[in-house]
Amino acid sequence: MKVFHTSRMVVRHPDVSFSRDALDFGKGFYVTKLRDQAMVYAEKFHFRGLSAILNVYELEDGWLKWHVRRFDSYNELWLDFVAANRKGLPVESFDAVEGGIANDKVFRTLDLYFSGDISKVDALKRLCYEQPNHQICLLNQQLIDNHLCFLSSEEL
Prior knowledge:
Order of helices and strands: EEHEEHEHHEHE
Helix content: 25-40%
Number of strands: 7
């Protein structure tokens, strides 16, 4: 499957150790199968006057044989997992996690929930109407080295 990663640089050999902590699915290398979503992410760099590079990879099917957690919707399991990761709390260890990304509307709901301004029940009521976008967080360097192949990059 072709996947995309937007960055400020060409990333031929992704390394999870360079990832930031406290992200939605943990410290890993994030990709999406949605080119349009990767293009929207580039706008965040452009807004700050920075260049953006779209990196394109082939994620070979073998990655699915690893310990992968999939979230098909913005549900309570997804919310608890994202909340724990963002707070730096321990979570079950996976080689990769696939699921929805927090777009602007979802992010606002998460902020309200994390700040205590709305309850978990209210957050879930808001999230149930949202269609998840897509992200895969590759958390295991060996999985990346064995199954993610750099294809190309382009400046956006």
